[in-house]
Known about the structure:
There is one protein chain. The chain is built from 17 helices and 23 strands. The longest helix has 22 residues, at 363-384. A hairpin with an 8-residue loop joins strand 8 (112-113) and strand 9. It is of the alpha+beta class. Helices cover 34% and strands 21% of the residues. The chain is globular, with a radius of gyration of 25 Å. The strands form six sheets. A seven-stranded mixed sheet has the order 7-6-10-4-3-13-15, with no helix packed on it. A five-stranded mixed sheet has the order 17-18-19-21-20. The protein folds into five domains: 3-41, no CATH class; 55-235, tricorn interacting facor f3 domain (Immunoglobulin-like, Sandwich), CATH 2.60.40; 236-328, Zincin-like (2-Layer Sandwich), CATH 3.30.2010; 335-474, Orthogonal Bundle (Neutral Protease, domain 2); 504-624, Serine Threonine Protein Phosphatase 5, Tetratricopeptide repeat (Alpha Horseshoe). Zinc ion is lined by residues 323, 327, 346, 349.
Amino acid sequence: MTFKRIAIGGYLSTMFLILFCACGGNKSDEWTGVLLPVEEDSTDPHTHSQAATAVITHMNLDLSVDFKLKKLVGSVTYQIKHDKASEIILDTRGLKIQRVTLGEQESETSFNASTEDSIKGSALSIPLAPLTKIVKIYYETTENSNALQWLSPQQTADKVHPFLYTQGQPILTRTWIPTQDSPGIRFTYEATIRTLPNLLAVMSAENPRQKSANGVYTFKQANPVPAYLIALAVGDLQFAETGPRTGVYAEQSVLQAATSEFSDTDKMLNVAEKMYGTYNWGRYDLLVLPPSFPFGGMENPCLTFATPTILAGDKSLTTLVAHELAHSWSGNLVTNATWNDLWLNEGFTVYFERRIMEELYGLDFTEMLNLLTYNNLKSLITKMGNDNPDTRLKMDLAGRNPDDGLTRIPYDKGFFLLKSLEKLAGRKTFDAFLSQYFKDHAYQSIQTGQFILYAQEKLLKANKLEFDLTEWIYTTGLPADCPVPQSDRFEKVEKQSKAFVAKNDLKKIDSKAWSAQEWIHFIKILPRDLSAAHMENLDRSFNLSNSRNAEIQAVWYELAIYNGYSSNIQESISDFLIKVGRRKYLSPLYTALKETDQYELARSIYSKARPNYHSISQQTLDQMLDF
Ligand SMILES: [Zn+2]
């Protein structure tokens, strides 16, 4: 690996330093620089656009939603900035570009779309005149527009109207809008969406609360956002408030459950603001999607898209709301400049999420979440291999689909790095540092190296602290100084679990006051060679196979598959896999079926379930099950 030196302030006295230098504790009067890998300077490897030459500053989208033909048809107009550039380059994939015009007069121009790269898609080059400020592209989406999921009425909660939603992260926005699709490029946007009059359209912007008479909706996002945060959903949606600044969009049959599940959202927002500064996005609403949504949540500005699997009835899974809300600072306000720097987005968000949870639900509850995270991270690293390059926080995803980087590493290893810094600096100092960090980088997209320099200067040097940031960020595995969470509540669960396993005696379990997290831990630590009698005993008493809590269902089904108990509850497992499209649950369950020689069963369930999954989940499972 080669390195370059970046000066923080002083002069460089040493020409060739080979080691990474964590300079927070460096006592030298001469050396005030740190060494960073050369990759820090690299541009986003997942975009064709050359922002330094010509860049988008504002988007105006005008699309009609055609549910019959399953396509979006219309145009996108960009205001652009350049210094007499000869062309602007946009990313596109799976789009039919019809024509391109320049300027307010809409002068027709030629354009060139390169052959599609299997990951990046096609480079759309549009020639510019020296004074061109406006570029307009007429286009339509195709069946290869992978951001879009078109759901039949049968695939929705109410089963009457069709539904459409988009998922842009990481690089799918280019499959429904020709754009400069890099997290390092931000622009404001407006949009007009035309749909059927009985449907409501919502976006990652200021949103309508009621259906319009003609099915036409207009939107405005006044803060500059990267393309992956542009999102659209259209369906038979209703709105209900959960507080002065927060609310829920959902289908009629889900609305009430969602409103009560998310009733703490306003409190979360207030707590978050108190910790890290003003919420800059106006309202914070949640949209509950049909179960096919591939993620837990997506932090689309002003309107988080969420899976219905968090509607457990007891607010036990609303950590996810705290997470998506926290992204309003870490991610949406301060963004990773490339997908290699995803930890700057997700690691900070997990840390912030846990701080919100601690404030609202207490330290002992949060320590359970932290310990679950720690255990999952340890077993993930063991599974991936301690020297697997993908266990580094700073990733190298060039030439690969950035979706490969969406493991728990950037989230959870990133979280523990920040926990370590908090432990070192003390909470008060660390909070002040984070608030300033969000302020100083608001509406910017930054790389890992920039964070290191900033933290060296403003946190470590300023407080005379020593810490090896580079070990955490650039080496594989988990550093030995990773703080290990302690949970008394989990210790009690562990004792009871042991006692139960020894005697298959349910009296050893006192679960009356258990939270979902205690149940999850209890199930996760049960051995994988538990007798059928044990499994039956648990299931009969606690009805785990029919739990309302998707997290408990998922870990219980996984245990059942490994323990040879799944044939007893096969229908529950199949139903779950066919209904739910959240990849977090699908991957471990299909893996478990595969690893227990039930490959054909896995394929047969998948063949029924596949139409219900978004392309993101399909891609993972097609690979896993050779579809
Ligand atoms: Zn996140």
